[in-house]
Amino acid sequence: MEAYRTRVIDSLLDDLVPDIAVALDGPRGVGKTVTGARRCTTVISLDDPVQRQTLAADLSRVRTLPGPVFLDEWQRHPPVWDAVRRAVDDGIGHFVLAGSATPVDATIHSGAGRIVRLRMRPMGLTERALASATVSLADLMTGARRLLRESSPVTLAQYADEIVASGFPGIRRLRTRQRELQLDGYLTTVVERDFESQGRALRRPTALRGWLSAYAAATATIASYSSLLDAATPGQVDKPSKVTAIEFREVLDGLWLLDPVPGWLPTSGALDRLTQAPKHHLADPALAARLLNVDADALLSGRPRQTRGQGSLFGALFESLVTQAVRSVAAAHGWETFHLRTRGGDHEVDLIVEGPERRVLAIEVKLGGSVDDDDVRHLRWLARRLGDDLIDAIVVTTGPEAYRRPDGIGVVPAALIGT
């Protein structure tokens, strides 16, 4: 078996397990089972009918099993959640639950105050270890603004390869054609099986596939859901209704397949007229690439977006790759990640990482190695508005060198971003 690759979430889990009950949420195949089970004594797989029936016959058994106890695919038998919650109330907290979907037609307690919920994402650049991750996000969040002098060996072509390689551990290790077929199968399973497993009838699978493709084409934009629907059904008179499109989104959210970045609404009065619209991202940019039928060569060729004025597809998927990595690291520290865009679109910043005491790190993502004044104009605008609340600002690139510009803004190769 392939050696376990350390995940960003591991250090957080080590701090919580076995004292605190934890729920790992995330799409199927993201690595929840391996990561959760390796720190538990008892493993129960609730997608196994025999194990599920055995536990359902006597749920009180979860209290007496040797702990920590790992309950995989817990949503297959939702009463397990409340059994764990009651055990926590009684002082037994050594549980890890993993789920790849929101339970259907089940009324369960939120678990607030008893079960810590963590989202596990596909492997980001930090976890793929393409280079030594020497630029710590935690260090940037201190506001020390240290000198940046590191180098990255990762090329533009390698970033294209990483976009299509996938962050799903079991898929990325395969050869190219095997990987493509596995990703295609993953998407087919979502459309043909997982959707209806969420208790929703799907009359026209092609409509859902089309909506997913339109969402992929809108990666890193705030395109409206109505425009996504129009893009998914060009020339069709009998379009899915708005209600159906909303249902698509809700079910895909429940399967953890969508991972939109919310708009930032700061508590201070330094900024106003900001959009609340989320920026669209799938759980993994490799899924977007397969939905749009592009490989690394197509990305490198500069294939344009379907929507005019939105830049290259490579640029959008590179931003999604960086966003995936930044969000995993930020979440492990308990920080939140947003994007910023004024309502008129005059100013926008790709990522805003907000830590305690309103500490803000602003991140722009650029496909390319050189950074000029035009690339940092939104960061400089934000610095004028936030003052000392903006503790640092960086541009993440595909270039080889990390450095500080004369204005103090950092330039960091994507592969160097670490915890």
Task: Summarize the structure in words.
Strand 3 (69-72), helix 4 (79-89) and strand 4 form a beta-alpha-beta unit. The model has no long low-confidence stretch (mean pLDDT 93). The protein is an alpha/beta fold. The chain has 16 helices and 13 strands. The protein has a 6-stranded mixed sheet, with helices on both faces. It has helices at 10-16, 32-37, 49-57, 79-89, 125-128, 137-140, 156-165, 169-172, 176-197, 205-217, 225-232, 242-254, 285-291, 296-300, 313-333, 377-386, and strands spanning 21-25, 42-45, 69-72, 95-99, 115-119, 135-136, 336-341, 348-354, 360-365, 390-397, 403-404, 410-413, 417-418. The longest helix has 22 residues, at 176-197. It is globular. 37% of the residues lie in helices and 14% in strands. The protein folds into 2 domains: 10-119, P-loop containing nucleotide triphosphate hydrolases (Rossmann fold, 3-Layer(aba) Sandwich), CATH 3.40.50; 125-418, no CATH class.
